[in-house]
Amino acid sequence: MLVCSNVTHHYSVRPVLRDVDFRIAEGECVAVLGPNGMGKTTLLAILGGAVTPTFGTVEINGRIRRSTVEEELAIRKECVYLPDDCWLPRRLTGSEWLLDVGRLYEIPVERLYRHANLLIDVFNLTDVAHQSLSSCSAGQRKKWMLASALLTDARVLLLDEPYSGGLDPAGILALQRILRRLTSEEGRTIIFTTPVPELVEGTADRLLVVQDGRIAADERLSDLRERSQNGAVTPLLQEMFFNSTLTKLDRYFQVESEAAG
Amino acid sequence: MRRFWRGLRDVMPHPLILAVALAVVVAVRHRAWRFLEEQAWLFKHDPDLLLEVFRGTWGLLLIGWVFLCGLWGSCRAILHDPARSDAYRDWLSRTPWRYPHPLPQGPILPVPQDLIVLAMMAAAPWGMPGLSPWDPVLAAIAIYSLTLSRSSRTLRVACLNWLLVLLAFRVRLAGFPVAAAAFVLGSLATGCWETVRRLQREDVWLLDETASMRRRLRWPYSRLGPQRMTFAFPVPLLDGLLCGLIFAIVAAVFLAAMLNNPTELQGEINLEHWRGFSLVVAALFAGMRILAYFIGMRPSTSCLGSLALGRFVHWRFDRVWLGPALTLAATGISILLLDALQVRAEVSVCVALGVAFAAVLTAPPDWEEWRLTGDIRLVPELPEPESRRSAA
């Protein structure tokens, strides 16, 4: 259970989040959606403990973030926050990095090696597993970051823009399926941000829309499916988010066809 | 076995640097032996002179090697230290990492693999007559422990480390390598002990947002927010006295080296004038202290304003001058006192310099207290560019 209570955050005097309040039950996969600069990353950084909110608290599995050293350390063990541009050691190889992260989270050795090999295989990283991370491409580095977060076996995963950063279609597919399985079969809680509504449908079962630092909408995907005419959520989301862009596009096409005709 | 190799890679220099260093060492050793063989017949009646010539020519290369080994020591302490990389520290602070769990990037503290690197350092001048193979090893360990203690928050430990390394340097110059090794190992133990304490301290790993907050806030909020100087005046009295002692020892080492150096300059050194020199150094210290206090702070009333108001003393601001004044006074008094006691000029100079350094570090007022309660005006660190101001 993750509870975000009255979280407000300012950068200098500019408010980025205002009175953000929500609860996420165990086993839920929540997508935080919204245009750029609306506070998605800040919200995730606050949930991940990387930023302390100006006001408000974050509670994860009954423990309040940054209340005591013991509670904070316990939270860090069961909650992994992966920022969009995560640090990676340039001298190590990818496989060494995965094993180091696994040891850090005290994963049993047998499980660690098996899981690391599977993740390397799933993300098509076998060829670069023994190359230094500095020689990997941006997309491959993103895959190593994602693999390291998945390897921790944390109960709560906070992923900032997991689908961006050069991830190829195969990587996107793999991640979508893995996240889906982690929530439905293992009951893990996942929160991820994305500005792209198309990526939500295959992964999340709940949407939080951040607009101007507030939660503008909190919807279940099943409810949205019921509301849509053909059961597809993506067109409905496009209409919700990009209404003005769609109107502008209509006008553009109309003017262009009039000029041509 | 795989872990051992991984550990070795963590402590070794970059393979390319290692290959170049090895090639240079092999070439230099080969050339040095050739030199000895070629010159042997010339000095066959005086082998000691040959040794002297050899040391004079090839000893310079040994100094270069010692410097490189010291560089390795410094890199070894910095490369894997989370305190030296914001990104690594931020990442680590989000994980459940605690000491003594191994650091993912590599170890900061010495590991058995370091012995292999040290053995390679000693092997370079090994067997060359008149050159000590232990000097590069001692230099590497000394610089490593000094760099470790630089990350320490306790000035006392850093002072102790410097003291031990300087003593090691002095006794090595005096021809006591075993004593020098003992001092260097003492310094290593101090550095490691302090590093373990630093890694154990919990608040390092719970994000300290002070620095990032200051970056975010910018002028003028950055000046109003909490600040932490890496080095804040005044330091505790004991730390200041230790620093003064170290500075006096450094001055003594340099003065002794200068006086023992048989050059034509020696006759021109008049130690009586050096007493005045220590007062000049004290004035420099005082000036640096004023600069440190004045970064971003100015008096709330300008000189003209003070004249117009008839208020010539603003105690809540002017107490900033107390530290520099005390520094100059303490140095002057110590010079006069030692002169009256007829202490030798070189000792008097070193003591006066030590007193000046200790005084500038320990004199009031407290920087934080003065910043928060003084009669001051906050100014930006850098003035806004003229073009931007005119555009606004």
What is this entry, summarized?
Chain A has 261 residues and is an alpha/beta fold. Chain A is 41% helix and 23% strand. Chain A has nine helices and ten strands.
What does this protein look like?
The complex is a heterodimer of chains A (261) and B (392). Helices cover 41% and strands 23% of the residues of chain A. By secondary structure, chain A is of the alpha/beta class. Chain A has a six-stranded mixed sheet with strand order 6-7-8-3-9-10, sandwiched between helices. In chain A, α3 (94-104) packs across α4 (109-122) and α3 packs parallel to α5 (138-151). The N and C termini of chain A lie far apart (59 Å). The termini of chain B are far apart. Chain B folds into two domains: 2-208, no CATH class; 226-391, no CATH class. In chain B, α5 (113-123) packs across α6, α12 (271-294) runs antiparallel to α15 (322-340) and α12 (271-294) runs parallel beside α16 (345-362). Chain B is built from 18 helices and two strands.
List the helices and strands and how they pair.
The complex is a heterodimer of chains A (261) and B (392).
Chain A: E1 2-11, E2 14-24, E3 29-33, H1 40-47, E4 55-60, E5 63-64, H2 69-78, E6 79-82, H3 94-104, H4 109-122, H5 138-151, E7 156-159, H6 169-184, E8 189-194, E9 206-211, E10 214-220, H7 221-227, H8 233-241, H9 243-260
Parallel strand pairs in A: 3-8, 3-9, 6-7, 7-8
Antiparallel strand pairs in A: 1-2, 1-4, 4-5, 9-10
Chain B: H1 2-11, H2 15-40, H3 47-79, H4 86-93, H5 113-123, H6 134-150, H7 155-173, H8 177-200, H9 210-217, H10 221-224, H11 237-260, H12 271-294, E1 297-299, H13 303-309, H14 315-318, H15 322-340, H16 345-362, H17 367-373, E2 376-378, H18 386-391
Antiparallel strand pairs in B: 1-2
Helix pairs in contact in B: 1-5, 2-3, 3-6, 5-6, 6-7, 6-8, 7-8, 7-11, 11-16, 12-15, 12-16, 15-16
